[in-house]
């Protein structure tokens, strides 16, 4: 299943629409605050319904406000909403359609009526929007909000992925080699040493230790900021290299180990301080901009199993060998081949 987040700008909504939407954002905030205050004061329990809400919002929007307030209260307890809240409606109570001239409109209830308003469909969202219009996809809740002088809506579109002809790109992230990448079935791979990252860590750790001994705490903090910037630049460069590698192949799909699996299964003590998460984030959003799907896969035994026969093998630093089929391979590339062959959960469209 592919999930695509669509954010679209409303095209020239009338003044009356904008005024009503602005009123709805305030009423939405007040509805959520009413629920939070009632639960905190013991006025009612979590089974509160729209019958207790005394405002002009459509009941579908009131229901969504109650659901969001429950979620906020369960996480944070007493909450004070100081700003207007984007109002939302569940997937069953809004629609997307086209007019006779092909204009895409979004329809949803608000205060006085349902509003059908054109949205601007730019290239990046044209395909998922068309799928939804044609009935080939499902939608999630709709949010409506203001940004500056403009109004926007955002929602997710879900549809079955067409995996025919795809090229799986397996990505292993580690200490000795920060990136080990294989285009499965294409006999192409990329291996990037982790020496630069380790050098940055050693250099700034030494500087921090020296400054701490000297009592220069402010200078020590500045050193930490510089290290973060160096690591961030490195992660940007690494993610760009990976996307460039993937773009050479037909319908690439990038597969990476699930971050939690990396943290739990790694024997390297530095895994918790290294910016695995940041690197994966950069890869994910750059892939999404390039139209490449990204999946997270189970990390279990990707480094121990032979990527050809599936038997447990032996790793000696950078070399992996399999006693069952006799295969020898760079250990991190063997892991990336295993990752490429596993189907995972999509984290981009």
UniProtKB/TrEMBL annotation:
GO terms for molecular function: DNA binding. It comes from Haloarcula mannanilytica. The keyword Nucleus does not apply. Pfam families: Cas12f1-like_TNB (PF07282). Keywords: DNA-binding. It comes from the Archaea. Residues 276-339 form the Cas12f1-like TNB domain. This is Cas12f1-like TNB domain-containing protein.
């Amino acid at each position: 299943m592919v999930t695509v987040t669509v954010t679209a700008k409303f095209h020239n909504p009338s003044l009356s629409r904008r005024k009503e939407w602005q009123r709805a954002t305030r009423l939405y905030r007040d509805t959520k605050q009413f629920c939070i205050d009632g639960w905190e004061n013991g006025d009612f329990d979590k089974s509160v319904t729209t019958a207790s809400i005394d405002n002009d919002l459509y009941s579908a929007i009131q229901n969504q406000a109650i659901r969001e307030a429950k979620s906020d209260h369960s996480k944070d307890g007493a909450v004070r909403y100081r700003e207007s809240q984007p109002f939302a409606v569940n997937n069953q109570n809004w629609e997307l359609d086209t007019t006779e001239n092909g204009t895409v409109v979004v329809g949803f209830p608000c205060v006085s009526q349902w509003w059908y308003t054109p949205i601007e469909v730019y290239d990046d969202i044209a395909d998922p929007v068309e799928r939804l219009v044609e009935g080939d996809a499902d939608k999630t809740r709709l949010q409506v909000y203001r940004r500056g002088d403009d109004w926007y809506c955002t929602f997710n579109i879900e549809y079955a992925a067409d995996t025919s002809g795809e090229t799986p790109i397996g990505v292993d992230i580690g200490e000795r080699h920060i990136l080990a990448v294989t285009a499965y079935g294409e006999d192409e791979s990329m291996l990037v040493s982790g020496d630069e990252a380790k050098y940055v860590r050693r250099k700034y750790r030494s500087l921090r230790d020296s400054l701490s001994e000297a009592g220069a705490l402010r200078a020590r903090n500045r050193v930490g900021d510089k290290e973060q910037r160096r690591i961030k630049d490195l992660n940007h460069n690494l993610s760009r290299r990976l996307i460039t590698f993937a773009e050479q192949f037909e319908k690439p799909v990038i597969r990476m180990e699930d971050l939690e699996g990396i943290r739990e299964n790694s024997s390297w003590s530095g895994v918790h301080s290294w910016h695995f998460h940041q690197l994966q984030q950069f890869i994910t959003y750059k892939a999404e901009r390039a139209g490449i799907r990204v999946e997270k896969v189970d990390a279990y035994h990707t480094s121990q199993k032979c990527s050809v026969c599936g038997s447990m093998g032996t790793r000696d630093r950078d070399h992996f060998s399999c006693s069952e089929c006799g295969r020898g391979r760079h250990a991190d590339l063997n892991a990336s081949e295993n990752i490429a062959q596993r189907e995972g959960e999509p984290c981009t469209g």
